[in-house]
């Protein structure tokens, strides 16, 4: 790992005076509002109908059985169905958690990441317009789009387009049909280790680039695609990353032909994660610092250069990530789970889940929200410490090395969002030691999963809350799995070869070395089978 990273190591040149226009609040550049966009919708079928119109396009040529004309692709088909209606729904940036008197707001076509006071922003939807349709309507609409190839609704994110980026033209959308991930019934793990029969793992990491970041990145890169068509000054898109954001950014940018720039902490991400942006043609900087150092640098750089910021500081990302919450409800046929447990690092995702559930409640799709749990590695636990102080005091920490390397973050940018989400969902914060998270991962794997260490952090929280009786045996509980285990196979190799200092690796399952002769193989097999009974 060290040698591969250093191969790509380079140092950043010092700041230069920029000739480029800067984002709002960084140089006060004013961008023009674009002309109003025409909503992209159709009335030709349930799953792609437009809530605001009922007339079909009677001049459309008659489609083939598939719904598409002979020489059409799915984008062309979507374009043909589009009706000329004014926007029904809209969204804008507002200061996060602004008081009722605040009038500050920005078009999503502006390049702005912070409010005037320097605080976070949030994407605010026109809830009154969405409320013109009842909960049953939205449930039916979203359900009707699942499992189709209709552009762009085949994506689990864009199947909720009206709640995500209502005004974007489907032609501008960059999607890999992400989302719609497996909600896995952890039958054996739940029964064997926790005495639970209603435990579920939402596999957000079994996705295009192997993590939940795809959900947010399709939204961000689609908006960038639109901004570039509107001739906004966006030359490339950049992020700091512990390995998953960079993978998603580079893949979606590569699909759209947009340059991507990623800042990675040297020697702190897995080889599988490092090679993703390299293979996707990103400009990769391996920087001799940690994630928090990279984050500071990308913020400085994006205020100097026309590079659009792709980290979750940018609230657009969370609009995509929130759809995982809606998907969970959908998968339970709109029944609300009791608990949802999410591993936390930069802390955008816990708020995204909160926001997804909240919107469903506000718009009448559900009548209550689940309780949220955010779990951190004990080696990088600023939120946990803040929670333990009774939410009185937040202090950034120096994040120590953890097998859950993607959450090795000491100064999370979305701390305010996370505190808000947890306070408003009667939430809990837990932490997991290295041994706890690795044991939890190994136990889950032994029941047929292949999870990442971050999911091990979430499972450790569940174990603690079950043991203390906070989560009851019968509670319907969802653990959010955030990345694919294959990205972190080295951690599993270390564990199963029992080579981790000061760790018992109690559930290690190392291979047995055996001579290449029949007798030796029979001996070891008889010994192995000796203590097994049929069906066990
Ligand atoms: C695999 C994985 N799990 C969990 C997280 C935590 O998500 P968040 O930063 O939104 O808290 C991240 C990134 O930080 C991640 O890459
Ligand atoms: N785990 C993340 C860290 C950055 O989080 P972001 O959501 O703010 O982009 C990563 O993979 O880079």
From TrEMBL:
PROSITE patterns the record matches: DEHYDRATASE_SER_THR
Naturally occurring in which organism (per UniProt): Gossypium mustelinum (Cotton)
Subunit (UniProt): Homodimer.
Subcellular locations according to the entry: Plastid, Chloroplast
Example GO biological process: threonine biosynthetic process
Disordered: annotated span: 1-69
Cofactor requirement: pyridoxal 5'-phosphate
InterPro entries from the UniProt entry: Cys_Synth/Cystath_Beta-Synth (IPR050214), Ser/Thr_deHydtase_PyrdxlP-BS (IPR000634), Thr_synthase-like (IPR004450), TrpB-like_PALP (IPR001926), TrpB-like_PALP_sf (IPR036052)
Keywords: Allosteric enzyme, Amino-acid biosynthesis, Chloroplast, Lyase, Plastid, Pyridoxal phosphate, S-adenosyl-L-methionine, Threonine biosynthesis, Transit peptide
PTM-bearing positions, type N6-(pyridoxal phosphate)lysine: 213
Family per record: Belongs to the threonine synthase family.
Top class in the EC scheme: lyase
A Pfam family annotated for this UniProt entry: PALP
Catalytic activity, as annotated: O-phospho-L-homoserine + H2O = L-threonine + phosphate
Gene Ontology cellular component list: chloroplast
Highest taxon in the source lineage: Eukaryota
Any GO molecular function: threonine synthase activity
This enzyme's EC code(s): 4.2.3.1
Residue ranges constituting the Tryptophan synthase beta chain-like PALP domain according to the UniProt record: 175-482
Annotated Gene3D superfamilies: 3.40.50.1100
Name the record gives this protein: threonine synthase
Pathway(s) per entry: Amino-acid biosynthesis; L-threonine biosynthesis; L-threonine from L-aspartate: step 5/5
NCBIfam families: thrC
């Amino acid at each position: 790992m060290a040698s591969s990273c250093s191969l790509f190591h380079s140092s950043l040149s010092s700041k230069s005076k920029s000739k480029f226009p800067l984002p709002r609040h960084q140089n006060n550049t004013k961008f023009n509002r674009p002309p109003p966009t025409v909503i992209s919708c159709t009335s030709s079928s349930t799953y792609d109908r437009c809530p605001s119109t009922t007339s079909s396009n009677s001049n459309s040529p008659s489609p083939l059985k598939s719904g598409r004309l002979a020489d059409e692709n799915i984008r062309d088909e979507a374009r043909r169905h589009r009706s000329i209606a004014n926007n029904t729904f809209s969204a804008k940036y507002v200061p996060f958690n602004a008081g009722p008197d605040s009038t500050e707001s920005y078009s999503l076509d502006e390049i702005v990441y912070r409010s005037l006071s320097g605080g976070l922003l949030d994407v605010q939807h026109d809830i009154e317009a969405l409320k013109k349709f009842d909960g049953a309507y939205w449930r039916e609409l979203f359900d009707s789009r699942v499992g189709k190839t209709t552009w762009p609704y085949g994506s689990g994110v864009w199947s909720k387009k009206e709640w995500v980026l209502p005004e974007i033209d489907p032609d501008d959308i960059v999607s890999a049909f992400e989302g719609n991930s497996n909600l896995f019934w952890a039958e054996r793990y739940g029964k064997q280790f926790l005495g639970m029969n209603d435990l579920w793992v939402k596999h957000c990491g079994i996705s295009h680039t192997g993590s939940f970041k795809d959900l947010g990145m399709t939204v961000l890169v689609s908006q960038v695609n639109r901004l570039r068509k509107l001739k906004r000054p966006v030359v490339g898109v950049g992020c700091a990353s512990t390995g998953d954001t960079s993978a998603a950014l580079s893949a979606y940018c590569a699909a759209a032909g947009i340059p991507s720039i990623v800042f990675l902490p040297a020697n702190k991400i897995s080889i599988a994660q490092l090679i993703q942006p390299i293979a996707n043609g990103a400009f990769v900087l391996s920087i001799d610092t940690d994630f928090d150092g990279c984050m500071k640098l990308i913020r400085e750089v994006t205020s100097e250069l026309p590079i659009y910021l792709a980290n979750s500081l940018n609230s657009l990302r969370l609009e995509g990530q929130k759809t995982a919450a809606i998907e969970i409800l959908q998968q339970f046929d709109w029944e609300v789970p009791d608990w949802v447990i999410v591993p936390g690092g930069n802390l955008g995702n816990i708020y995204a889940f909160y926001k997804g559930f909240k919107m469903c409640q506000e718009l009448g799709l559900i009548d209550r929200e689940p309780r949220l749990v955010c779990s951190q590695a004990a080696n990088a636990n600023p939120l946990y410490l803040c929670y333990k102080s009774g939410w009185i005091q937040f202090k950034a920490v120096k994040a120590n090395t953890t097998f859950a390397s993607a959450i090795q973050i000491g100064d999370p940018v979305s701390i305010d969002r996370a505190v808000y989400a947890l306070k408003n969902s009667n939430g809990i914060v837990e932490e997991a030691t290295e041994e706890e998270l690795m044991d939890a991962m190994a136990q889950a794997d032994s029941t047929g999963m292949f999870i990442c260490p971050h999911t091990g952090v979430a499972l450790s929280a569940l174990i603690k809350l079950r043991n203390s009786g906070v989560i009851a045996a019968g509670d319907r509980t969802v653990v959010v799995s955030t990345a694919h285990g294959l990205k972190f196979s080295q951690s599993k190799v270390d564990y199963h070869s029992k080579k981790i200092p000061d760790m018992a690796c109690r559930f290690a399952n190392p291979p047995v070395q055996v001579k290449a002769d029949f007798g030796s193989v029979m001996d070891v097999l008889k010994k192995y089978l000796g203590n097994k009974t049929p069906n066990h």
